[in-house]
C-alpha cells in the first residue's frame, strides 16, 4: 500500500448542522456497503477537501457506490459518511453546495438543454429568471451556449455529458462529483470536459471524478484514490505510485517490420533485461527502468533506421497497476 | 450567484421548488403519447355512453293506457273515459254525451291515454294523489268503493312507510293516478339515472381510478427505474416534497381534464334532458357534487398509486386488487349506501358526496322512484328501475351539507395519509 496521504480525515463532528465549520468536504469513516453477501465497499476511510481527486477503479470496483453514499442515495451498511460534516442520508440540506453528475445515460430527452438545466436549478430556490440566467452561464462554461435551445434527445454523447455537467454546476457548488464523465465521449468532448474539470480545480472547488481509464485521470489530476473490489488500495499522488511501478519489471511492446533486427540494437541498452518475440513483427522488451527506456526508445529507433508502426505499454493500464498494488508484479 | 433584491424566505423557496417540479411534471406528461391515449380513451368512453343517453332522450316512449279509458267499446265515437265522466252507458251506442243537452262534442281518444298523471307533491306518509279524470268520484260508486283503502278520505292514495325495508306501501282507492304520462316519466327518470350513472360510475369511478392508475403509478417509480430521478434528488429538495409536487403536477392535468369532461357532460345533458326552459339548471347541483367527488377521488387515488409505485417496482400489480375492491365498493353503494364496509374505501366516501348533492338538487327523487315503481298500479314504468339503482340516499345519517363536508374531510385525510406513507417509503428507499 502507498501511505502517501496528503489529506487527513478529521475526527467526526457530531453537530448535525448543514455546514460544520472546518469539517472536511467529504469524509468516510470505516464505511462499508453490502448487498446481501456481495460487498460493494468495505471499510473505506477517506477525507477530502479541495482540489481535483480522481477515483480510479475497474467496473464494479465501488466508485459509483461511493458517490451514491455521498449523495444520500444509498445508506451505508456500516461506518459513517459525512458531507460538509453532516450525514447525507435522508438529509438533502448539504446538496445546496454539491453538484452531482450521475453515470446514468438516460436523460429527459424531450427537454432542451436550457430547460433541463434551469428546471433543476429552480430546485435550489432560484426564480425562473435567475435559473435561466444561471443555466445560460453554465452552458456557456461547458461550451454548449449555441445549442442551449436544442432538445437533449438530438445531442451527441459528449454534448449530453456536458449538459449533465452544466446541470451539476448551476448552483456554483463547492463540491462537484462526476461519475465517469468521459465515458463514451468523442475526443473533442473529452478535452472540453477535462478542461472544465481542471478549471474547477483551479477555482478551488473540491472535485471528485471517477474513471476506469488511467491515462484519462492522469491528464486531469495527480491526486488519486484507487478502489479495487470495494477496497481502498491506494490514495495519494499518481506519480509517486508510478515511480514505484517503475521499480518493477515492466513491458514495452514494439510492432515493426523486422523485430529481430530491432532487438539487436535495443539489447545493448542497460535498462533492458529481457526480450521476447511473440511473432515476426512484434517485440516485447522487459525493463526495470521503464521511464528511462521509454525516453530513449525513439532515439534508438531513428538512429538505426527501423520502421516501427507502434510503441505500446501493455502494462501501463489500470489493471497492471492494480495487480501491482495488490502485491503481484506488473 | 445573482439574486434579485427580494428577501428569500422559506415560503418563497418552497413555492419555487413546488412550481418547478409541478411544471416539469406537466410538461413531461404532455410529451408522452400514453398520456394522450389515456385521456382520449376516457373521453371516447364517456362519449359512447352519452350517445346512448342522447338516443334515449330522443326516442319515443309508448304511451300506455292503463285504465282503458281511450277505448270506445260501443263504437259511438266517445271514448270510454268521456262516457264514464258524463255517466252514459259504455256499452250502448245510443247512450253518449252527445245526446245530453247541451250536446258534448266527442274527445279524441289520445286525450284519454295519459289523463290521470301523478300528482304527489311529497313523499310523506299519508294521503297523496288526486283523481284528475274523475273516474273515481263518479256518482254510481258507493262511499266504500271510493275509499277502498279505508283512510277516511275518498279517492286518494295512502302511503305507509315500511320501517324495515325502507320502502312505501301504496294502497289506492282505485282509479286514482292510474294513467300516468309514461313518456314524461321515462324521460325524467332516464335523464336522472344517466346523470347519476355517468357521474358516479363514469367520471368519479372509471376516470377517477384509471387516469391515476396509468399516469400516477409511475410518477416516482419510472424516474427511479430509468435513473433520471438522480438529477432531481441531487438537488436540495426533500423526497417528501418531490412526491407531493409530482402529484401536484399530475393533478394540474387530471383536475383540468375531469373539470372539462364534467362541463361537457353538464352542457350536453342540460340541453338534451327534459326541461321546461332551454337548459336544466337544476342538474348543476348534482354536477357540482360529481365534480367535487371526482377531484377528491383523483387526488386520493393518485397519492395511493404513486405510493404503491414507490413501494414496489410493479406497483400496478398492487393497484389492481385495490381497483377491484373499489369496484366492489361502488356496486355496494348502489344497493346499500350505508353499509359500514364502505368506510374502508375511497369510493364510498366519494359516493356520499354525489348522493348528498343529488339529494339537495333533486329532493323529489325518492318520490319519483316510488311513483314509477308503482306505475299507476301496473308495475314499474320505463326508467323507474334504472333510477332506483343509481339513486341512493347518502350513506351517512346526516344532513346533505354535513355529509359533503365530512366525506370531503375524510378523503383529504386519506390523501394525506397516502402522501405521508409514500414519502416515508420514498425517503427510506435506496436508489441505484
Molecular structure report:
The complex is a heterodimer of chains A (330) and B (432). With 330 residues, chain A is an alpha/beta fold. A 6-stranded mixed sheet of chain A has the order 5-6-7-3-8-9, with helices on both faces. A 4-stranded antiparallel sheet of chain A has the order 11-12-10-13, covered by helices on one side. In chain A, a hairpin with a 2-residue loop joins strand 11 and strand 12. In chain A, helix 3 crosses helix 4 and helix 4 packs parallel to helix 5. The longest helix of chain A is centred in the middle third of the chain and has 16 residues. Chain B has 3 domains: 296 residues, no CATH class; 33 residues, no CATH class; 47 residues, no CATH class. In chain B, 58% of the residues lie in helices and 3% in strands. Chain B has 14 helices and 3 strands. Chain B has a 3-stranded antiparallel sheet with strand order 1-2-3, with no helix packed on it. In chain B, a hairpin with a 6-residue loop joins strand 2 and strand 3. Chain B is elongated and about 100 Å long. At the A-B interface, strand 5, helix 2, helix 3 and helix 4 of A face helix 1 and helix 7 of B.
Question: What is the fold's blueprint, element by element?
Answer:
The complex is a heterodimer of chains A (330) and B (432).
Chain A: E1 26-35, E2 38-48, E3 51-56, H1 63-70, E4 78-83, E5 98-101, H2 113-121, H3 128-141, H4 157-169, E6 175-178, H5 187-202, E7 206-211, H6 214-220, E8 223-228, E9 231-237, H7 238-246, E10 250-256, H8 259-267, E11 272-279, E12 282-287, H9 290-303, E13 308-312, H10 318-325
Parallel strand pairs in A: 3-7, 3-8, 5-6, 6-7
Antiparallel strand pairs in A: 1-2, 1-4, 8-9, 10-12, 10-13, 11-12
Helix pairs in contact in A: 2-3, 2-4, 3-4, 4-5
Chain B: H1 10-30, H2 33-58, H3 80-86, E1 126-128, H4 143-146, E2 157-161, E3 168-172, H5 182-215, H6 218-226, H7 229-233, H8 239-272, H9 284-311, H10 315-335, H11 347-361, H12 365-374, H13 384-390, H14 400-427
Antiparallel strand pairs in B: 1-2, 2-3
Amino acid at each position: 500500500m502507498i501511505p502517501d496521504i496528503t489529506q487527513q480525515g478529521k475526527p467526526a463532528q457530531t453537530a448535525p448542522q448543514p455546514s460544520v465549520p472546518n469539517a472536511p468536504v467529504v469524509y468516510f469513516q470505516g464505511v462499508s456497503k453490502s448487498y446481501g453477501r456481495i460487498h460493494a465497499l468495505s471499510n473505506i476511510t477517506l477525507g477530502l477537501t479541495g482540489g481535483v481527486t480522481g477515483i480510479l477503479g475497474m467496473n464494479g470496483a465501488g466508485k459509483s457506490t461511493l458517490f451514491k453514499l455521498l449523495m444520500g442515495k444509498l445508506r451505508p451498511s456500516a461506518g459513517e459518511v459525512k458531507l460538509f460534516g453532516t450525514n447525507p442520508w435522508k438529509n438533502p440540506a448539504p446538496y445546496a453546495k454539491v453538484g452531482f453528475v450521475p453515470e446514468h445515460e438516460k436523460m429527459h430527452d424531450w427537454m432542451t438543454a436550457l430547460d433541463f438545466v434551469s428546471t433543476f436549478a429552480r430546485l435550489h430556490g432560484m426564480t425562473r429568471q435567475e435559473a435561466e440566467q444561471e443555466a445560460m452561464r453554465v452552458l456557456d462554461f461547458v461550451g454548449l451556449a449555441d445549442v442551449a435551445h436544442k432538445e437533449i434527445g438530438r445531442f451527441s454523447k459528449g454534448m449530453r455529458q456536458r449538459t449533465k455537467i452544466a446541470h451539476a454546476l448551476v448552483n456554483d457548488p463547492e463540491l462537484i462529483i462526476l461519475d465517469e464523465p468521459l465515458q463514451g465521449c468523442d475526443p473533442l468532448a473529452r478535452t472540453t470536459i477535462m478542461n472544465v474539470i481542471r478549471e474547477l480545480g483551479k477555482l478551488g472547488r473540491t472535485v471528485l471524478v471517477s474513471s476506469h481509464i488511467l491515462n484519462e485521470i492522469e491528464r486531469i489530476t495527480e491526486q488519486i484514490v484507487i478502489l479495487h473490489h470495494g477496497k481502498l488500495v491506494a490514495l495519494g499522488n499518481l506519480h509517486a505510485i508510478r515511480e514505484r511501478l517503475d521499480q518493477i519489471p515492466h513491458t514495452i511492446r514494439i510492432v515493426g517490420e523486422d523485430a529481430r533486427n530491432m532487438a539487436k540494437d535495443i539489447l545493448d541498452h542497460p535498462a533492458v533485461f529481457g526480450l521476447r518475440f511473440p511473432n515476426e513483427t512484434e517485440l516485447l522488451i522487459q525493463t526495470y527502468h521503464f521511464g528511462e527506456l521509454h525516453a530513449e526508445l525513439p532515439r534508438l529507433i531513428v538512429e538505426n533506421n527501423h520502421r516501427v508502426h507502434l510503441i505500446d505499454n501493455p502494462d501501463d493500464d489500470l489493471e497492471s497497476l492494480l495487480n501491482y498494488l495488490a502485491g503481484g508484479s506488473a | 450567484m445573482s439574486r434579485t433584491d427580494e428577501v428569500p424566505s422559506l415560503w418563497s423557496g418552497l413555492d419555487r421548488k413546488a412550481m418547478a417540479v409541478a411544471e416539469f411534471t406537466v410538461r413531461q406528461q404532455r410529451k408522452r403519447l400514453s398520456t394522450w391515449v389515456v385521456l382520449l380513451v376516457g373521453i371516447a368512453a364517456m362519449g359512447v355512453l352519452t350517445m346512448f343517453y342522447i338516443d334515449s332522450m330522443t326516442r319515443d316512449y309508448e304511451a300506455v293506457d292503463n285504465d282503458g279509458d281511450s277505448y270506445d267499446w260501443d263504437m259511438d265515437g266517445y271514448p270510454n273515459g268521456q262516457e264514464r265522466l258524463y255517466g252514459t252507458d259504455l256499452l250502448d251506442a245510443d247512450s253518449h254525451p252527445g245526446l245530453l243537452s247541451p250536446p258534448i262534442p266527442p274527445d279524441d281518444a289520445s286525450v284519454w291515454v295519459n289523463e290521470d298523471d301523478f300528482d304527489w307533491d311529497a313523499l310523506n306518509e299519508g294521503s297523496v294523489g288526486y283523481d284528475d279524470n274523475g273516474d273515481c268520484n263518479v256518482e254510481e260508486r258507493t262511499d266504500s268503493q271510493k275509499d277502498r283503502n279505508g283512510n277516511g278520505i275518498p279517492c286518494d292514495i295512502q302511503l305507509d312507510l315500511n320501517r324495515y325495508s325502507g320502502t312505501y306501501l301504496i294502497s289506492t282507492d282505485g282509479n286514482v293516478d292510474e294513467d300516468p304520462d309514461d313518456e314524461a316519466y321515462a324521460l325524467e327518470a332516464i335523464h336522472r339515472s344517466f346523470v347519476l350513472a355517468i357521474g358516479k360510475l363514469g367520471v368519479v369511478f372509471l376516470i377517477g381510478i384509471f387516469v391515476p392508475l396509468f399516469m400516477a403509478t409511475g410518477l416516482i417509480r419510472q424516474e427511479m427505474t430509468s435513473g433520471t430521478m438522480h438529477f432531481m434528488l441531487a438537488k436540495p429538495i426533500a423526497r417528501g416534497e418531490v412526491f407531493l409536487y409530482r402529484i401536484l403536477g399530475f393533478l394540474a392535468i387530471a383536475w383540468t381534464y375531469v373539470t372539462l369532461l364534467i362541463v361537457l357532460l353538464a352542457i350536453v345533458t342540460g340541453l338534451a334532458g327534459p326541461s321546461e326552459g332551454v337548459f336544466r339548471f337544476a342538474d348543476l347541483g348534482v354536477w357540482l357534487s360529481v365534480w367535487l367527488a371526482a377531484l377528491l377521488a383523483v387526488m386520493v387515488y393518485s397519492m395511493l398509486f404513486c405510493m404503491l409505485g414507490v413501494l414496489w417496482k410493479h406497483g400496478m400489480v398492487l393497484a389492481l386488487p385495490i381497483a377491484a375492491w373499489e369496484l366492489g365498493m361502488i356496486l355496494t353503494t348502489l344497493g346499500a349506501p350505508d353499509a359500514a364496509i364502505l368506510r374502508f374505501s375511497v369510493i364510498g366516501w366519494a359516493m356520499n358526496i354525489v348522493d348528498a348533492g343529488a339529494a339537495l338538487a333533486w329532493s323529489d327523487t325518492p318520490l319519483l322512484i316510488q311513483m314509477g315503481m308503482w306505475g299507476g298500479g301496473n308495475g314499474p314504468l320505463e326508467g323507474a328501475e334504472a333510477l332506483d339503482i343509481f339513486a341512493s340516499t347518502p350513506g351517512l345519517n346526516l344532513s346533505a351539507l354535513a355529509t359533503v363536508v365530512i366525506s370531503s374531510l375524510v378523503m383529504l385525510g386519506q390523501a394525506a395519509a397516502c402522501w405521508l406513507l409514500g414519502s416515508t417509503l420514498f425517503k427510506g428507499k435506496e436508489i441505484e
